[in-house]
Amino acid sequence: MRYVALKSEHALETLEALRQAEPVDESRVLEFRGSGEDIEKDIPKIVECLNKIKLRFPERLSRRDPKGGEFEAQACVEVHRRLPFDPQMLADYEWWMWLAVFRFRELVEWRHGGETGRAAPANFGIGNGSENLLYRMWLRADAGYDPTRSDPYELARRGDQDFWRSHVFRQGYGRCRSLVRALIRYQFPDNSPENPVLKTAEIRELAKRLRRLHPNVVFEYLDEESAYELIVKEAELAKRTLAGSVSGQ
Q1: Which of 86, 87, 101, 188 could form a disulfide with 1 if both were Cys (CB 3.0 to 4.6 A apart)?
Q2: Do residue 32 and residue 140 come from a single domain?
Q3: pLDDT of residue 195
Q4: What integer pLDDT is reported at residue 85 of this predicted model?
Q5: Contact status, residue 48 vs residue 78, Cβ threshold 8 Å
Q6: pLDDT at 25 (0 to 100)
Q7: Which residues does 157 contact at the CB level (< 8 Å), separation at least 6?
Q8: The total number of structural domains that make up the chain
Q9: Count of CB atoms within 10 A of residue 83's CB?
């Protein structure tokens, strides 16, 4: 598809200019990439859908407000469902920056701006493309998507914001869809983010164990049930490790 990218070297100045309602020289900071049909025609519907979801939530969120995580759980489905699958575009962090800065700036400021209403640049993908709110939501829905379920996005809706950011997005194994789906099923078996199986210290220990395993076990080759068995085994070892460290004190 044909799409617009916001050049990284101009991203922060562009964001600040838009915040101040100052003019932006788009010929300097933007670049057209790809070919074929223009992605721009698909964006207004996504904006409309996400704004409708936003109306269900408070006008202002604190930085750690669990309502923000609930919003992402609902909104990620619409982002994934309505964006055409174009590998070049979806892998281009500078396209995601354009999307966040030029089309969803107010939404990002609302979701991550806290009391000041000014979100950190990373939430627009500036300085760290993987922290972009729109990209994170798409990735969440893609990782949890299971076409064999009656609701293909059921797993994507499970889990709280800390689980997804700390134990999926920021981990190397987070790119392995079968492992991520297995981890979601194990940690949140009843769809409730309030009832995780592992406590905070336990899932952190599990994440450490999975990171250590990843160089030696090709997670990408595991089917979901094999991945689930691995998660169960490593979770039990994580709990024993923590229990042993406590008893040894």
Answers
A1: 86
A2: yes
A3: 84
A4: 96
A5: no
A6: 98
A7: 73, 74, 76, 77, 144, 191
A8: 2
A9: 20
* Residue 9, in any domain of the structure: yes
Burial of 226 (0-12, 13-18, 19+ CB in 10 A): middle
Can you read off the two tokens belonging to residue 51? 């704004």
Residue 217 corresponds to which tokens in the numbers above? 């076990």
Tens digit of each residue's pLDDT (9 = 90 or more) over 162-175: 999 999 999 989 98
Same domain membership, residue 178 and residue 152:
no
Domain boundary among the residues 157, 189, 222 is at 157
pTM of the model: 0.92
Q: What are phi and psi of 4, to 5 degrees?
A: -110, 140
Tokens of 41: 């025609």
Q: Quick check: is 149 in a domain? A: yes
Say whether both 81 and 195 belong to one domain.
no
Report residues of the chain scoring pLDDT below 50: none
| Beta partners for residue 5, in sequence order | 31
pLDDT tens, position by position, 55-93: 999 999 987 889 999 999 999 999 999 999 999 999 999
Please name the residue that has the structure tokens 């269900």: 56
At 6, is the secondary structure helix, strand, or coil? strand
Find the distance separating the first CA and the last CA of the chain, reported in whole Å: 59
Domain membership flag for residue 165: no
167 lies in some domain:
no
